[in-house]
Design a protein that fits this description.
single chain; about 375 residues; alpha+beta; hpI Integrase, Chain A; three-stranded antiparallel sheet; 13 helices
């Protein structure tokens, strides 16, 4: 059986099935004419779905530097399928799925069938107002802007409406109430005594005491940590933050180049981490033979965190915050202790800080140690 599909770029057709039962597609594209007047065609074969074949056709187009002929209309869906989607192959699975969700749920329904050159700022602003969830709005806007910027790089557009920010009215939201130093220590003390939560204490210490992201904390092992003591006996732990963990991608590089860093934990976080961190393997793992040395799903830790507040909310006597807000709590405690913004940004692995601090020199590990000591002094004084 042969199914033929033709487009402005080329053609794709099923020419058979492989041993695993998947369709074998042949994609083809014209590459001019031979000296005898016959058309020259470049072909590739790909095993999988029609979407896989479309992505292969897009990659072939990019290899050949080919775009639709001048005067042909190119819709946003065509650009997504032929050009942009193939460019996502090098991203992690989680990141790629995030882009695909933003496309499928928000961008494609609004603009998929539109000629890319016909979009206006008024339309984009009206569309953004229709996307209610702030995070979904940010992700959809980011994807649309990146696609249009890429189309300009591919010389398919001369300009687009998102070259300048499109501003929409923002609903006023209250900043979440983060914990004080006393509240952080009250939570840590409770987890120390709670059999269900004690296993999660190492990543919580890394987040609250070192400002690590949840996925970064789940990937830390004892070999990434070095404990130091000064003349007074105070302990300090230096943590090499060099990877993150998610079930979908396994171990992967940190979020940005700046996220690979040395974090410094002061006491009492450092001493408690030394007592609770396993001798080998990730800082927390499922208690089953089949799951040996495989970290917990970070979402499972978040679920256990919520359950802890459901079970002990009254006795804890703490305002609820999400486990991801431990990192923001650490940032707030460092700010209150007087740590400079440039040091704090580097400590947390931000790719950039606010516009006021763009011209700063990235501090080294020594500055991170000084910042942790400052926090230690602040905690000791509470």
């Amino acid at each position: 059986m042969s199914r033929n599909h033709r487009s402005a770029l080329g053609s794709k057709r099923v020419v058979g099935t492989d041993a695993d039962g998947r369709d074998v597609w042949e994609v083809a594209m014209s590459s001019g004419y031979r000296s005898d007047g016959r058309q020259r065609r470049i072909t590739r074969r790909v095993h999988g779905t029609e979407r896989d074949a479309a992505a292969a056709l897009g990659r072939l187009a990019m290899e050949m530097g080919k775009s639709p002929h001048a005067g042909d209309s190119l819709t946003l869906s065509q650009y997504w399928e032929w050009y942009y989607l193939p460019s996502l192959d090098g991203l992690t699975r989680a990141t790629r799925e995030g882009y695909e969700a933003a496309w499928r749920n928000h961008v494609a329904p609004a603009f998929g069938g539109r000629d890319m050159s016909s979009l206006s700022r008024v339309e984009v602003r009206r569309w953004l107002l229709s996307v209610r969830a702030p995070s979904a709005r940010r992700n959809a806007m980011k994807l649309l802007r990146q696609m249009l910027n890429a189309a300009m790089d591919d010389e398919l557009l001369d300009s687009h409406p998102l070259q300048r920010p499109v501003r929409v009215p923002q609903a006023r939201t209250e900043r979440p109430r983060l914990w004080t130093a006393q509240e952080v220590m009250a939570c840590v003390d409770h987890m120390w005594m709670d059999p269900r939560m004690s296993r999660f204490l190492p990543p919580v210490l890394l987040m609250a005491g070192g400002g690590l992201r949840r996925e970064e904390a789940m990937a830390v092992e004892r070999r990434h940590c070095a404990w130091l003591s000064d003349a007074s006996g105070a302990s300090m732990c230096l943590v090499s933050v060099e990877r993150a963990y998610t079930p979908r991608d396994g171990y992967k590089e940190t979020k940005t180049a700046q996220s690979t860093r040395i974090a410094a934990l002061p006491d009492p976080f450092a001493s408690m981490l030394d007592e609770t961190m396993p001798e080998w393997g990730p800082c927390v793992w499922p208690r089953s033979p089949a799951g040996a040395w495989r970290p917990y799903d970070p979402d499972a830790m978040s679920h256990a965190w919520r359950e802890m507040f459901s079970r002990h909310g009254g006795t804890l006597d703490l305002p609820y915050i999400t486990i991801n807000q431990l990192r923001a709590t650490h940032e707030t405690l460092m700010q209150r202790a007087g740590v400079e913004d440039s040091v704090l940004s580097s400590f947390h692995g931000h790719s950039q800080i606010s516009t006021d601090y763009r011209h700063y020199l990235s501090p080294d590990a020594g500055a991170h140690i000084d910042a942790a000591r400052t926090l230690d002094e602040s905690l000791s004084g509470t």
